[in-house]
Structures
1.
Amino acid sequence: MNIAVTSKRLFYPGLLFLILILLSTLPFYASSYTVVRLSSILMYVVLTVSWAIFSGPTGYISLATASFLGVGVYTSAILGKALPLPIIVGIGGLTSFILALLVGVLALRLRGIYFAIFTFGLLAFIKHLVLWLEAQITGTRGRLVILVDTDTIFYVMLVIFVMTLLTAYFMRRSKLGLALQSIGEYEEAAAHVGINVTLVKIITFAISAIFVGATGAIMATRWTYIDPYIAFDPLYSFMPVLMAIFGGMGQLYGPVIGAAVFAYLEELLLTEFPYYYMLIFGIVLVVVILYLPNGLVGLIQKWWKGGLVRQRANTRR
Amino acid sequence: MMFETFLDVVIGGLLMGGIYALIAVGLSLQYGVARVLNVSHGEFIMLGAFITWLLYTAFGINPLVSLAICGPIIFIIGFILHRTLFTRLRISSPSPAAFEGSSLLASFGLLFIIQNIALAIWGGEIRGYSYLAFPVNLWGAIFAANRLVTLLFAVVIGLAFYLFLARTRLGKAIRAAAQDPAMAGFMGVNINQVLAICFGLGALMAGFGGSFISICFSIEPTMGLEYTIIAIIVVVLGGLGSIPGSFIGGFLLGLIGSIVTYFEPGLALIAYYGLFILLLLVRPTGILGK
């Protein structure tokens, strides 16, 4: 009995450790094409998990992810030549954190659909503001970004990925995570229990934005050329929402699995059907919302539970 | 000279405002009654614009006459979409708030589907045609006749729709469904039918708006999102769900855009979004919202 419990307790950390070792040695045995593809899958996982850190428990639909990513991208484009890479990535995370603090202070009073509309309007606002500023100051639309080799991008992405997962994990276990959960259940009651509702929301929102900004700063180096339309593409706001729903938000691994599977599918669709990729994307979005409200994980759990019930029925007989 | 410039800016703003108002009324109806914040609203505008363009360039049908053809087509598309997709979502959602979230995301899916079907059919080029494009002189300020005609039509359609809501039996059912869908259902309103009609009517307004846009401006399959965002801004400006609010908001936004464009053309969009963000923070319920 005890052995079973400890082996079960060691199973998931062991599995994670194995995956981490496989990932961290990837550039030694895989082709550089695989490394590039995995970097972009890691990017989507980070975006989705950090979206789910805040929006999962609270139920506030944030469409600000693309704004945070774009701010990171521009940090990298502006400071790229002046500073070493780790510092740029750090500053990318920091600027994104500050933007999220500002947005949080202003907008987290808004509930429900208003918050979603606000964050989406903010994205359009920042995009056009940057476009106008670039035209006024530099007289051009886009910028060139420094080149970084694919292995370095991959390792930086991996570090951000691990940090995001650890943050998400410990956040769920902490008092802060419980407070967030209770805000999602019933915000007024949470406030009455003595939770500083506004503070909890703002801090979580800002912390979750750090990883998105850092991701933007490193991924910008892969795109080499950026302009506001690339950096503030609304797709980066919707993808994390879709991927989190696709995976299921009840568990931490839901968004991770959702993002990984979906990002892989996206790469596949892009190479196989470049013209119909967006059409297929739309159909998948509608179908997932209609038929998989609890996501892939919900589906798997349903099967698994069904299996368990049958097992129990068997033992009783 | 001063007076002419002033007229130029004000009338120009009102002309734009008429179209804004019409598309915002459609969105307001869809959100206020059917509770769907339809982000694919602009795609119905695009469909209206392309159907009108197609009828004019291929069959030579007068764009104002083709309103009678394009309107019903788009209404039926909207009606069927609500009966299949959104009704199902509404029934399976655990709470109204959950439905608002999931229908928002589903309408994003629709956006990509409709836009990419249009791109596959018509390609990515910018299209346009010329109809009633002769100049009209209004006290020294000069405008194209087609823009004045579209403003007139937009106002007439808006008024007719308002009377329909206020005076007819179906209009009463729609207003009841907006206030309390469950109670309206108890009173014998076929709620699924009424909500689907509302969604269809919202799409119809978008289609009409699209027809007018195609008369005055050039069109392309990816034009939708820009108008969707404008419609959302107007609806928030006027108060979510308020039809007269949307009308006032439309003209107000048209005027603001016209004034800002006069001073600094590059800032018009930034002014729209800035105003929108400010408004959400100061008075999220809008001008006429409760």
Note: The longest strand of chain B covers residues 135-138.
2.
Amino acid sequence: MTVGPPGSARATTGIADGQWHRLHPASPLLRGGLALIAILGFVIANLRERLVEVFIPVFAPDLGDEFDERFSRWQGDWAADPIGGIVMNGLVGWALAGVAVVIIGIVFGFWLSWRMHTFRITDEAVEVRSGIVFRSHRSARLDRIQGINVARPLFARLFGAAKLDVSVAGQSGNVQLSYLASALADGLRADILRLASGARAAKAAGAAPSGVPVTEQGEAALGATAPGETALGETVLGETAPGETALGEADAASQTPGQSSAAVAGRVGELVTRRVGEFLAPELDPDLAPPESVVHIPVGRVIGSTALGGAVIWLIVLAAVLAVGVATRTWWMLFSFIPALIGLASYSWSRITQSLRYSIAGTPDGVRIGHGLLSTANQTLPPGRVHAVEATQWLLWRPFGWWSVRINVAGHSLSANRESVQRTIVLPVGTADDVRRVLDLLLPGAAPALGDALDAGLGGRGADGGFEPAPRRAAWLHPFAWRRIGWLERDGIAAIRRGVLVRGLVLVPLARLQSVAVQRGPLRRMLRLSSLRLHTVTGPVTATLPVIDEVRATAAFDAVAKEAVERAALDTSHHWGAANG
Amino acid sequence: MPELSEPHDVPTHVDADWRRVSPKYVVVEVVGSIIGSGVVIAALLIAHFLGAQQWALWVAIAVAVIAIVTIALEPRRVRSIAYRLRDDDLVFRRGIMFQRQVAVPYGRMQLVDITRGPVARALGLADLKFVTAAAATAVTVPGLPAEEADRLRDELVALAETRRAGL
């Protein structure tokens, strides 16, 4: 159950001690400030010429004649030429003072929002307080955690910062700690998961040689950390108010002796090395996960699958449009499709960079999935959180045997948020063997239970592998797919096989089924068919069996309803730590 | 089902029979249909007589015919609404043309909601709505007598407590 060797600095960050802590000092800048800097940059870039022109007469009085000439040209039109107005009316000093006030105000606002943004991790929950005027207080109960994600957008990575996102069941109920020092985020994730696993802090302390009470333990661990990882304390909490936390004090103590310039230079060098190291480090922390990812996606496959994905159709459409445009010499047509082309290119680029350096591995605290080349993200799914899995294969991927896997997890809503959409894709592209390995991690026991039915589900048709095929009369409703459509329920796993253009295999662990419905409209009634739908939490996977024989549907409905109740009662995987001991 | 301890998990009301909703619920549905189609027909007639739109009259007639057929079938539709409390789950079914049958395990119910529209309140009826973590579950038992709805809600909440499962 323990993560890393007992007693090591990894074992606890000392932050999960129930006290309020602050985030990375650069947080406000990383969260919203970049936009501000961009706006400032834009304004300055646009006004540069104006400002240079304006200040020439101030610093070079020889050109006074020109100044006078310009003064006569300014006709009191503030709206058209505010800067001219300021200069002409001798308000330059006031203007500069105003700009300074605004800048100071913004910096003070940032500082205040950083001061007011605190978080704490108790045995019960992760809590975040924020806001200057309107205070908000969010808390995520540890036993309701559906997943923990650490994301490092490109800019944050340059600062050595990371965003920790604790997702809980419920729509947009996520608690975000943005931003933390990169190394701290990983440690904190391990701490939260350990607390959440049902193994209490006492147990963790028992495993570590220093069996001290929680608060003291935090301090002790920090003392051990300080010499090796000064930069950690410095970047995260170095600027806390004096005496605010034990952490700050420990850090201050370690800082005082090393004030000579050589030490500072050495520390800067160390910091840079650390940043570079973090930047190049593999997405999965070797301390926390078995070093080998079970799936490796070659770069060629990522690029190939993107090229053969939905983008290829758009490319053909665009090429056709361009050809027509050139042939008929309607040049405006070409220009109107440039935005589409740019969109396509940026979509493909983001898909490729998001899928590179992909890794997935099982850890004691759940499945860890990491990906991303420039902006990286990794998520940890505690065991027993996956409600549905779907493997899909598009027509053009079939010759290569490529599949992609998506999942439904509570709390990952169907929102348009790109990050949360990305999180539901657990395997961007992989072979059937990769699908099998990923499945082993997501739904342990599913693959052995299904046996050869898994292969039949991926590629088969008819009654292969024990699937219940749709009857021939289903061809009236699904002329192409009816041979593919099939149903199987074995050992608490329901499998739905469907689709020809886009082949799909949906697996639903009945232990986490919410409800089941059987439906039939007039057409299906005429054909003595029904459709069966397994209701899971909201997500990209919809577990619907479009057609099944009426009598079989009733039998399947009864079996699923009964099995769902039994499996749910036996299921203990959501308290994985407690189950282990 | 694993052996649960005795007294509280044998609810008094569990039975093998389908229960129907109150026949008075027909009135609620009929009033709803009349109001809904009435508004559409009125709009179309205004368009016909004031806006001189010839087609509007035909559309209005079509809407009226559909409304009359729907209202005529209403008693059968309401009779088709039934629910059944089994040992571990609630089964709900409705529909004659589009039939739907749903089973919701008690342990999966996140909340039970009672809603009452104006017409239903006048008739002393209430709707009972079950919410699970899945949005698609969408089970609403309409037209229950108010006292029965209250009683059923309390029983279901108690049942959900004893069968509580993780998410």
Note: The first strand of chain A starts at residue 21 and ends at 22.
